[in-house]
Design a protein that fits this description.
about 425 residues, alpha/beta, four-stranded mixed β-sheet, globular, binds uridine-diphosphate-N-acetylglucosamine
Amino acid sequence: MDRILVRGGKPLIGSIPISGAKNATLPALAASLLTDKPLMLSNIPHLRDVTTMLELLGQHGAAITVDERLGVEIDCSGIHNTQAPYDLVRTMRASVLVMGPLLARYGQAEISLPGGCAIGTRPVNLHLRGLEAMGAEIRLEEGYIKARAKRLRGATFIFDLVTVTGTENLMMAAALADGETILENTACEPEVVDLARLLNKMGAHIEGAGTSCIRIQGVEHLHGAEHHILPDRIETGTFMIAAAITGGDITLNRTDPHILEAPIAKLRQAGVVIEEGPDSLRVSTDGLLRAVDITTFPYPGFPTDLQAQMLVLNSISTGAGTVTETIFENRFMHVSELQRLGANITLQGNTAIVRGGVKLRGAPVMATDLRASASLVLAGLAAAGETFISRVYHIDRGYERIEEKLMALGADIHRLSH
Ligand code: UD1
């Protein structure tokens, strides 16, 4: 199993491009199931989760072509299987995104229940309740969610809490439903907006994406479209924090500062110098960093997917800061690994109290989930000596060529394949 070795202490200098957003790519791929015409997607990141989604579509019967510019064409005219098997779903919970499209277009879907998850129980009850409100019959049998509906019908559904993939699943299902659907308390994430843009290009009638109320007028058929996936704001934020904690000076190209307002504001509060271009960000420091208080919230609040990385920034900054996680339970598994590198973090319920001013020191550590593994790489970059990170398959799920991009910025980082 691959490991990553980081020899820390080098400031990151230079510029790199940001990849397309994983969390926009996965629903866009699932949306291909809504039509029998080809969908052309560009700016697709090369990630394990994307491969998993392509594999899932492939076993449903989709024909997939990758062109020389790494665009992907998906043709779902030959779908012959509406089951998402346990082997794929257990490696990626976002597989559940195929449920809405399969049900809307084929009248049936069987999705394995995702099972255990390293960052809390993460149920899909709201996806199911929303589909039921649209007339689906849902049973749980033999570890599978079995959903049936002759044709989904428009409905009003209020989410109990804000869910990103829940909003996306219901938006896709409603696009082909009979009549109008009103979704309330919806996620406002830019990836939801990107999916709505794609669906509208395919002939859907969706209004309000990016607000907490989305209205969808169902149509009989959707058609093919071309779509360029938006930049990955979490990858952008991770590299911004990497530049800050190494005292570097980097420029991130092909990104979008407008979808990073909360992280940019927090990093400025911490003393990071950030210059915004139309599609780029230059990040540097001019002195000591200060620990900051953060509470994770749905967009436009501070993203939970950057919480682990901010623990590293607080650890090496002056003062103390709290990081409160409100989205997921049990999303502090990285704390004990960061403590192995010398971080001074105390957990109190869903709040991590970080006392800064620590000199991190390299050690062997283990990645526990996707964003946690990014925080360990960052900690390794800031630490003196060598940090060995094992279980890096977590990082390959969500960061495209992270060690190559960091190497291009001057980091001493290597992937070890034994
Ligand atoms: C998405 C992102 C993930 C990010 C998360 C929160 C993708 C592929 N993944 O995950 O990177 O960390 O948003 O920004 O886009 N919940 C329920 N019932 C449900 C659905 C969700 O109780 O039916 C709860 C979850 O357990 C969690 C909260 O709602 O506590 C938010 O989860 P959700 O927004 O659904 O996360 P994902 O869409 O899985």
